[in-house]
From TrEMBL:
Residue intervals of the UCH catalytic domain: 1-214
UniProt source species: Nyctibius bracteatus
The EC number(s) this enzyme carries: 3.4.19.12
Name listed for the protein in its UniProt record: Ubiquitin carboxyl-terminal hydrolase
Alphabetized CDD domains for the sequence: Peptidase_C12_UCH_L1_L3
Taxonomy of the source species: Eukaryota, Metazoa, Chordata, Craniata, Vertebrata
Cellular localization per UniProt: Cytoplasm
One GO CC term, this protein: cytoplasm
Gene of this entry: Uchl3
TM region(s), chain numbering: none
Protein keywords: Cytoplasm, Hydrolase, Phosphoprotein, Protease, Thiol protease, Ubl conjugation pathway
Record-annotated site: Transition state stabilizer: 74
Length: 215
């Protein structure tokens, strides 16, 4: 991910750091401020059941989502890491320092007026980011996971937009508003959301959180 940020033309004044545990003393080791949290988790039957129920509940009840939330759908298989990263950066773009020729900066500027579906389609054609994703994916593992593998790990981004904590997942039809948050409490609030994912699948161990922190 570090290489990935550099290749996309982002100044290293923000960095991704591992969150080693959910206890207060371990969270206190994470450099502040934190502007996004990425959660890697397994897609299991329990999770898919929950996801369907959650979607139906929100469609019935409605929710408040600010128009300033940058959200995109995921149409490329195994690109959830890239999309999580774009969600994390796009919703904090005012805090980021981009190089003048940054491919990500150009992508964000051009895709801002688009719908979530149009952004997904645009990413499919956007060589600079896709190639960077593929090269960094191959560096990290011996082989990229095949598309139809049963074991599926998925990335989502948690961000603070206008004092609300949003879960951004390109597999879902819309952002999920998890309630109010502040810059100071954001990491703790985001970790509470991560804990809910873990509680839904108590037998699972494959959860990993990383924070986008000030360097």
């Amino acid at each position: 991910i570090f290489q990935f940020l550099k290749q996309l033309g982002i100044h290293p004044d923000w960095q991704f750091v591992d969150v080693y545990g959910m206890e207060p003393e371990l969270l206190s080791m994470v450099p502040r401020p934190v502007c996004a949290v990425l959660l890697l988790f397994p897609i299991t039957e329990k999770y898919e059941t929950f996801r369907t129920e959650e979607e139906e509940r929100i469609k019935a009840k409605g929710q408040d989502v600010k128009s300033s939330v940058y959200f995109m759908k995921q149409t490329i298989n195994n690109a959830c890491g890239t999309i999580g990263l774009i969600h994390a950066i796009a919703n904090n773009r005012d805090k980021m320092n981009f190089e003048t020729n940054s491919s990500l900066k150009k992508f964000l500027e051009e895709s801002l007026p688009m719908t979530p579906e149009e952004r997904a389609k645009y990413l499919e054609t956007y060589e600079a980011i896709r190639v960077t994703h593929e090269s960094s994916a191959h560096e990290g593992q011996t082989e990229a996971p095949s598309i139809d593998e049963k074991v599926d790990l998925h990335f989502i981004a948690l961000v603070n937009v206008g004092g609300h904590l949003y879960e951004l997942d390109g597999r879902k039809p819309f952002p999920i508003n998890h309630g109010e948050t502040t810059d100071d409490s954001f990491l703790e609030d985001a970790i509470e959301v991560c804990k809910k994912f873990m509680e839904r699948d108590p037998e699972e161990l494959r959860f990993n959180a990383i924070a986008l922190s000030a360097a």
